[in-house]
Amino acid sequence: MTPLEKVEGRAIPLGLKNVDTDVIIPAHWLKTTTREGMGRGAFESLRADPDNLFDRPQYKDAPILIAGDNFGCGSSREHAAWALGDLGIRVVIAPSYSDIFSGNAVKNGILPVVLPQAAIDRLMEVAETDPVHVDLDTQTVTTPFQDRFAFEIDPFRKMCLLEGLDEISLTEKSDAAIGAYEQKLDAERPWMRPAAAGL
Amino acid sequence: MTRPRTLYEKIWDAHVVERRPDGTCLIFIDRHLVHEVTSPQAFAGLRASGRTVRRPDLTLAVPDHNVPTTARLDAAGNKLPIADPESAAQLAALEKNAPDFGIRYIDAVAPEQGIVHVVGPEQGFSLPGTTIVCGDSHTACHGGIGALAFGIGTSEVEHVLATQTLLLQPAKTMEVRVEGEVGPGVSAKDIILHITGTIGAAGGTGHVIEYTGSAIRALSIEGRLTVSNMAIEGGARAGLIAPDEVTFEYLKGRPYAPKGADWDAAVEYWKSLATDPGATYDKVVVIDAADIAPSVTWGTSPEDVVPITGSVPDPASFADPSKQAAAAKSLAYMGLEPGTRMQDVPIENIFIGSCTNSRIEDMRAAAAVIKGRKKAPGVKWAIVVPGSGLVKRQAEAEGLDRIFIDAGLEWREPGCSACLAMNPDKVPAGERCASTSNRNFVGRQGPGARTHLVSPAMAAAAAVTGHLTDVRELMG
């Protein structure tokens, strides 16, 4: 995973609320066994409109996306995060996210910044003409017009993003604790194992 | 004496392997369901890093999203090829990955095959008090039997395969209490549609919802699975319903459920899981069951719910300006005018199925309305897709398949089907579908498809009248 610390560039002022994962990447793009190339299907229904935001020259390769409440709701498909990543998006800024999407985003080196609607409204305005700067280390979003918005982030997620951590390697350090839990479970609740009489 | 705890807190506490200083916990996962769409990249990751599956015995793989719902075997009993090469590749990958990693696999032509969220409880693989994950957001479904079950992304699928754990932050708790008795024609689906309309699509974000109250207790397991299934439509990653005698009766004797003395020990443990008197939730919503009508969605978010007796709302009637804009966009997509009576909306397609509503009780509810009637001439396509091979055979033993077929509906093989249009079952652009599935998102049932979410009985009613219909008017 590519570490993320500072991101500066144009921000796509999408602004819509309840942007679901079927909008981010429709199901027919999920028929693949790899993680690559999802950007081609990203926001397909919105991009069917020739005047869509994503394909305007000023937002080509924009690393930031601004959205409304409950971004990434719906399906658990990580393909939504892969699609954003493939489009070049490293940061999403919204008032709230679905729980599954924000987890998937972080695991793919995408920072989900939470800011109140008033800040979103201001950033949408700035994004029309100017770049936005996001600094994960200082947890701030700034603009060329002296706007400065501080955001909160879970410290573990922050560390994973800053260091580009592979979570599985981290968990494998707890191998002994997992083994001890399994032994205790087998001793206390042996019936938790699926019955041998299964299929 | 320990402080009173909720059902969620008890299950969470029993699964903490390690607690980190920042509050993140390493949580043990008791059951992992795997399907063909969100797993190939996870298995590829394991291969690339030389990792194995830590607990293949706790993992069960079933293909469901991509499988066609037309015949899978020819007359001689040979497997028919899958026309779509991409679907075929994903199915082939699961068929290879499962044995390569020592995982139990239910083949697409096995009698037990079906939608993972139907198969899990039906096989007794899903149990109360367990943690269950699957690379599918409707894993919330298994909360209906009292399991802490939630959807995960593919990176987490790989993490669980490799370590049988997940790193998680504890969720907040929310109680949705539905008190009283629902009226005739009102099903579990109407209850959860009404709840979603009440709390909103993000109402449960960051929370696990426990459904309580006499109207929930009165539901069968099939009904409870329907309610918990759509917890995610209210933003909650998981739903929960406390296990009780109804749950134990449902699970007893199922293939993977505990047997003999193990069963007794399990039941005793499950009885201890109910929320303690005096335990508090971070958020409480109380709903009067008498206020719930047969319900239907008008827009493109599952929160866009009205009673069938209602009308398409005027976007200007919403207080929130962003909701006004979203409603206007939804209505343009749905081709609806404000003020149109829901019952005047014509329907060309019917889908009875999905992990929300494809269990035997759903089949019975739909058949009861269809019986003795015919599909309306305006309905071009109407399919009934049982949730599993076992549901299909049970329905056939009861003669339900004949009722559907005689009325002009199609009786299909099990799978996710037109819920998300990954297999050939799609709703044509610009046409409407009365669907028993869980999402009415733009393009969900096919590009340009217009979805109205309803209960199985309401879908059946629309099938015979050709428009959205108050099922109570068709009831004897």
Automatic annotation (TrEMBL), chain A:
Domain of life: Bacteria
Reaction(s) this enzyme catalyzes, per UniProt: (2R,3S)-3-isopropylmalate = (2S)-2-isopropylmalate
Gene Ontology CC annotations of this record: 3-isopropylmalate dehydratase complex
EC number(s) given by UniProt: 4.2.1.33
Annotated Aconitase A/isopropylmalate dehydratase small subunit swivel domain residues: 1-117
Pathway(s) served: Amino-acid biosynthesis; L-leucine biosynthesis; L-leucine from 3-methyl-2-oxobutanoate: step 2/4
The entry's keywords: Amino-acid biosynthesis, Branched-chain amino acid biosynthesis, Leucine biosynthesis, Lyase
GO molecular function: 3-isopropylmalate dehydratase activity
GO biological process: L-leucine biosynthetic process
InterPro entries (UniProt xref): 3-IsopropMal_deHydase_ssu, Aconitase/3IPM_dehydase_swvl, AconitaseA/IPMdHydase_ssu_swvl, IPMI_Swivel, LeuD
Binding partners and assembly: Heterodimer of LeuC and LeuD.
Family named by the database record: Belongs to the LeuD family. LeuD type 1 subfamily.
Physiological role: Catalyzes the isomerization between 2-isopropylmalate and 3-isopropylmalate, via the formation of 2-isopropylmaleate.
PANTHER family documented for this protein: 3-ISOPROPYLMALATE DEHYDRATASE SMALL SUBUNIT, 3-ISOPROPYLMALATE DEHYDRATASE SMALL SUBUNIT 2-RELATED-RELATED
HAMAP family: LeuD_type1 (MF_01031)
Name this polypeptide is given: 3-isopropylmalate dehydratase small subunit
Classification of source organism: Bacteria, Pseudomonadati, Pseudomonadota, Alphaproteobacteria, Sphingomonadales
From TrEMBL, chain B:
CDD domains linked to this entry: IPMI
PROSITE patterns recorded: ACONITASE_1 (PS00450), ACONITASE_2 (PS01244)
The keyword Transmembrane is assigned to this record: no
Molecular function in Gene Ontology: 3-isopropylmalate dehydratase activity; 4 iron, 4 sulfur cluster binding; metal ion binding
Record-listed E.C. numbers: 4.2.1.33
Keyword Glycoprotein part of the UniProt annotation: no
Pathway: Amino-acid biosynthesis; L-leucine biosynthesis; L-leucine from 3-methyl-2-oxobutanoate: step 2/4
Binding-site residues for [4Fe-4S] cluster, renumbered to this chain: C355, C416, C419
Domain named Aconitase/3-isopropylmalate dehydratase large subunit alpha/beta/alpha: residues: 9-466
InterPro entries given in the database record: 3-IsopropMal_deHydase_lsu, Acnase/IPM_dHydase_lsu_aba_1/3, Acoase/IPM_deHydtase_lsu_aba, Aconitase_4Fe-4S_BS, Aconitase_4Fe-4S_dom, IPM_dehydratase_rel_enz, IPMI_cat
Record-annotated membrane-spanning stretches: none
One GO term (biological process): L-leucine biosynthetic process
Any single Pfam family the record assigns to this protein: Aconitase
Cofactor note: Binds 1 [4Fe-4S] cluster per subunit.
CC cofactor: [4Fe-4S] cluster
UniProt keyword annotations, A-Z: 4Fe-4S, Amino-acid biosynthesis, Branched-chain amino acid biosynthesis, Iron, Iron-sulfur, Leucine biosynthesis, Lyase, Metal-binding
Catalytic activity entry: (2R,3S)-3-isopropylmalate = (2S)-2-isopropylmalate
Top-rank taxon: Bacteria
Function: Catalyzes the isomerization between 2-isopropylmalate and 3-isopropylmalate, via the formation of 2-isopropylmaleate.
HAMAP family cross-referenced by the UniProt entry: LeuC_type1
Family the UniProt entry places it in: Belongs to the aconitase/IPM isomerase family. LeuC type 1 subfamily.
Subunit structure and binding partners: Heterodimer of LeuC and LeuD.
PANTHER family attached to this UniProt entry: 3-ISOPROPYLMALATE DEHYDRATASE (PTHR43822:SF9), HOMOACONITASE, MITOCHONDRIAL-RELATED (PTHR43822)
Protein name, as recorded: 3-isopropylmalate dehydratase large subunit
